Amino acid sequence: MRQELYNTFIDKKQLGKKSFAVLIDPDKVTPSNLHKLIDTAVMAKVDYFFVGGSLVISNHLDECIQEIKSGSNIPVVLFPGSPSQVSIYADALLYLSLISGRNPELLIGQHVISAPLVKKSGLEIMPTGYMVIDGGAPTTVSYISNANPIPADKNEIAMCTAMAAEMLGMKLIYMDAGSGAKNPISEGMIRTVAKHIESPLIVGGGITTPEKAFQNCQAGADVIVIGNAIEKNVNLILEMSDAIQQASSTIA
What is the CATH number of the domain that holds 246? Predict the structure, then answer.
C-alpha cells in the first residue's frame, strides 16, 4: 500500500514541524473564491488541502479538486463524509472510522460498501481514527452520524479512544469539534491525547484565531485544520500559517 503522503506526516512529526491544512467544502465555494483561496494558500505555504464535508450535495467534487491541482502543487487529501466522496483526482484519502461514536455503520459498515471503489481509485489510503468532540453546538457530523460526541471535559475518554485506535492499527488520529463549533477543543484534551499516542494528531473545528492555532500546536497537535473561519475571511490563511510556522520554530 502506498505511503508517500503519510510519510510526510510522520517525517514532519519526528522533526517537530507543525502542518497546516485548509479544509474546503465543495458545497461552499464558487470558482471565483476558490481561485483566491488557492492563490492565498500557495502564498502562505499551506501544507495540505483537505476536501470534503458531511454532505457534499453538489456535483463539484472532481471539478474542485482539479481546480486546486491546476493552481497549486499542494497535496489534496479527501476528507469524506460518505462513501460517494471519492475522487481519482486527489492524492490521498482519510479512511475515517468514527471511533468516538458507537454507530457500526461509521465504524465499519460504510467502509465495506466503499471498499471496492476506494481500492479501484488508486488513491493513497490513510486509516484514520476520527473523534468528534463536543464543541458546544449541534454539528452536521453529529446529526448525520447519529452518534454523540465525546464531552469536552472528558480528556481521559478521548485519550483512551485514541490509544485504542492506534493499537487497532489506525495511522492517524483526527480530533474534530465539527464545522461551526462554538468552542474549539481544549489544549488540555489535546495535550492529554498527544502525550499517549505516537501517531500524528490532526485537530480541527472552532479554530478561529492564529493564537488558538498556535496554542493547539504547543499542546501537541501535529496538523491544524481550518475551514469555516477561512470561508469568512480568506486572508486569515496567511495569519494562521504564520502562527503555525512560529509554533514549529518555538517547539524545535
Answer: 3.20.20.390
**CB–CB of 4/207 below 8 Å?**
no
Confidence at residue 87, expressed as pLDDT on a 0 to 100 scale: 95
Assess whether pLDDT exceeds 90 at residue 250. no
Closest residue by Cα to residue 81 from 123, 136, 140, 135: 140
Domain count, the chain: 1
Nearest CA to 197 among 131, 249, 242, 98? Answer: 131
Q: What is the dihedral of CA 80, 86, 90, 96, to 10 degrees?
A: 30
Domain that holds residue 168: 4-251
Task: Give the whole-angstrom CA distance, residue 57 versus residue 171.
Answer: 29
- Rounded CA separation 146/32 (Å): 35
| Separation of alpha carbons 250 and 213, rounded Å | 13
146 Rama class: left (phi>0) / alpha (psi -120 to 50) / beta: left
- In 149-200, alpha helices (H): 155-167, 187-195
pLDDT tens for 159-216 read 999 999 999 999 999 999 987 788 999 999 999 999 999 999 999 999 999 999 999 9
Q: How far apart are CA 184 and CA 210, in angstroms?
A: 13
pTM for this prediction: 0.95
